[in-house]
Amino acid sequence: MELEKLLQKIESLLPEIDKENEKVSKASVGWHLEHSLLILNGSLKGLTMTNPQNYKPKSSIKKFIFLNFGIIPRGKIKSPKQFIPLEIPTKESLEKLLNLAKERLEAVKNLPSKSYITHPFLGDLDKKATLKFLGLHTNHHLKIIGDILKY
């Protein structure tokens, strides 16, 4: 699913931010939305800050499995501190992050294909791989939210 559609899905979930289900996740719907938006915003900004000439692609089994199969084990990977929501998200705080994500997504469209981010587990990801990563990561959290809301 492309990122614009995922951002629309996030927007549609804003009324549900206070919902929780301990059986599925210790975190609320709002936490998952904020975490996803922090990752989106940080990565999209990161793409604009690297020098494409410094891009160093490396292959790894983790990278291959993730980018080709989209497998993220639940509760197994610790997110870097800057991507963990510090406070209880509000509709307003999430709307700000959402609007920023929309702007940044638009801004990266014209970047060179070798623009990249360095992911802590996957190494350097070029623009196409970064956008794929963001789609898979956001979808992972949207699935968790779906499970929270099911019960």
Oligomeric description of these chains: single chain
> In percent terms, what proportion of residues is strand?
5-15%
Characterize the overall form.
globular
Q: How does the major sheet shape up?
A: 2 strands, antiparallel
List the helices and strands and how they pair.
Blueprint lengths: L2 H10 L16 H21 L11 H9 L21 H18 L7 E4 L3 E4 H24 L1
Antiparallel strand pairs: 1-2
Name the features.
mainly alpha, 151 residues, 5 helices, two-stranded antiparallel sheet, single chain, 2 strands
Explain the overall architecture.
54% of the residues lie in helices and 5% in strands. It is mainly alpha-helical and 151 residues long. The longest helix has 24 residues, at 127-150. It is globular. The model has no long low-confidence stretch (mean pLDDT 93).
Brief summary of the model shown:
With 151 residues, the protein is mainly alpha-helical. The chain contains five helices and two strands; from the N terminus they run H-H-H-H-E-E-H. It has helices at residues 3-12, 29-49, 61-69, 91-108, 127-150; strands spanning 116-119, 123-126.
